Amino acid sequence: MSGDRVELRHLRAFEAVARLKSFTRAADELAITQPALSRTIQQLEKALGATLLDRSSRQVAVTAVGQDFFAHVERILAELQRGVAAVRRQSSLRLGFSWLLPDPWAQHTVARFEQDTGTTVTLVRTDDAVAAVQQGRVDVAVVRGRVGSTAVRVVPLFTESRVAVCSVHSPLADRSELDWAEVPQWPLVVNTASGTTGPWSWPADEGPKTIVETTNFDEWLESVAADRGIGVIPDVAMRRNVHPGVRFIPLRRAPQSPVMLAFLPHARNAILRRFVEAAQSGVCTSGVRGDRHG
């Protein structure tokens, strides 16, 4: 050990062995091998110039010096934990989204992450979530549909079913369902910033002939309500009753719409990493509709 310094890993190792009275159980708790744990304890004893543990009997015993040192170590680790918790309570992760977070996945994931880490998730609504990630305005973003930027890392989560949306005044308003192949027959309202469906959703020359472009979800929704054309959107919108002026129509044979997390690939943020892990774990525990990605 360089300079015989006492490091945090040595204190954690000694505390575990002294508390559990077992190298085997301490190694399991710390997720390290027994030889590695033994070396760590030996380094600590060498740095202190004292024997902390008596290994002569079947059960590990703490020496008199070790008992005194153990009391100090417990206080140090407890104070450290209080400090970590205090900082985490003040820390925040910024989660960007363009419209309607997927339910119940988003609510379950955020609640569990905040409980487990003590970090507050700040929800940031933005018209272009990918751009917000690139510009550093959010730490991570929920994105749907296609992501053209190569400047962000994308982690697939699951897919959502699509539904058609039309004005209450549209000739389609009384339809009980619509086939995906019928969609190109109607003007299509497209959200160019964060939409999931556009001309790119069909092979060349097979998509809608008339495209009505909007630049955010609110413009898209009001344009559909004004009967400028029809829209296609994940069915989360139907469950949330987003506008009295539109009707939702089930779509047959429509491809699923992917949901992903986007963040900067060079980010080395432990809290961000834990959120991504919680988000992926939440796919399996929150009853997400659609297909799950591993």
Features of the shown structure:
294 residues; 21% strand; 38% helix; D-Maltodextrin-Binding Protein, domain 2; five-stranded mixed sheet; 9 helices; four-stranded mixed sheet; 3 domains; Arc Repressor Mutant, subunit A; 13 strands; single chain; alpha/beta
Proportion of residues in helical segments = 25-40%
Class by SSE composition = alpha/beta
| CATH uppermost class of the largest domain | Alpha Beta
**Overall pLDDT metric:** 90
Commentary on this structure:
Required for the induction the katG gene for catalase. Involved in the response to hydrogen peroxide. Keywords: Activator, DNA-binding, Transcription, Transcription regulation. This is Probable hydrogen peroxide-inducible genes activator. It is a single chain. The chain has 294 residues and is an alpha/beta fold. It folds into three domains: 81 residues, Arc Repressor Mutant, subunit A (Orthogonal Bundle), CATH 1.10.10; 98 residues, Periplasmic binding protein-like II (D-Maltodextrin-Binding Protein, domain 2), CATH 3.40.190.10; 94 residues, D-Maltodextrin-Binding Protein, domain 2 (3-Layer(aba) Sandwich). The chain is built from nine helices and 13 strands. The strands form four sheets. The protein has a five-stranded mixed β-sheet with strand order 4-3-5-13-6. The protein is elongated and about 85 Å long.
